[in-house]
Amino acid sequence: MPPKLPDWALPADEKGNCRNASQDPQNKPEKQYQRENSQAQQSNQNDSVLKKTGKQPPKGTKQMNQKGEFDRSRCLKVIGEYLETTGLKEQPQFIVPLFKKVTQNSTCKSLQNIFDKATEEELRAFYGVLRPVNDLVLITNNYKVALSDSLRYVQILLPNVKIESLFSCFIHLTKDHVKEVATFIKEDLQNGNLTKIA
């Protein structure tokens, strides 16, 4: 008898055929099911960040609250942290042009203006561009390697983009690239092809 696949792996017309009574959310009170599902999702998200960086994710990395609604203040807090980590906070002349490049039709003219007036969609787009670069910095720090080494791996992954600094990574770098960089670093450290910095 072949193994039973989880619901998410089945075609739409066959979903629900593989659950046993203890897994069926209809057999659990709604609140209990929602709580367990929410805890599992948060645990999975924390596990992936922990696996990638060796650290727990910073508080506030979720843009949604428990009800699935956009949490503007939390998103702004995380964007502020990302600006700090990536060094953009010290280079404010790059923030608004990057934001405008990401959002296209924005009329924001300063960081404060972005924080006060940007729409949810604009903030999500900006967050999406900042996050991979932030993660690259965290992985670089976690493995205690030079940023130049991480940027060298990024250049390998993005041969059509000239990577001169961390700022060159914005717009181009994705979370998948960051995962690959982490793998390269780990393998090269194990093989002795890369050395840690103090």
Cα radius of gyration in angstroms: 21 Å
| Global structural class | mainly alpha
DSSP strand (E) fraction? Answer: under 5%
Which runs of at least 5 residues are low in confidence (pLDDT < 50)? Answer: 17-63
Helix % is 40-55%
Shape: elongated
Care to count the β-strands?
0
Rounded mean pLDDT score: 78
Please describe the biggest sheet, giving its number of strands, its sense, and whether it closes into a barrel.
Answer: none
Task: Please write the string of helix (H) and strand (E) elements.
Answer: HHHHHHH
The rounded distance between the terminal residues' Cα atoms is 56 Å
Task: Give the helix tally.
Answer: 7
Biased composition (Low complexity): 37-48
Region (Disordered): 1-68
Secondary-structure blueprint:
Elements: H1 30-53, H2 72-86, H3 95-103, H4 111-117, H5 120-143, H6 147-157, H7 175-191
Task: Characterize this entry briefly.
This protein is mainly alpha-helical. The chain has helices at residues 30-53, 72-86, 95-103, 111-117, 120-143, 147-157, 175-191.
Give an overview of the whole structure:
There is one protein chain. The chain has 198 residues and is mainly α. The chain has seven helices and no strands. The chain starts with 29 loop residues before the first helix and ends in a 7-residue tail after the last helix.
Core attributes:
about 200 residues, mainly alpha, 7 helices, about 55% helix, elongated
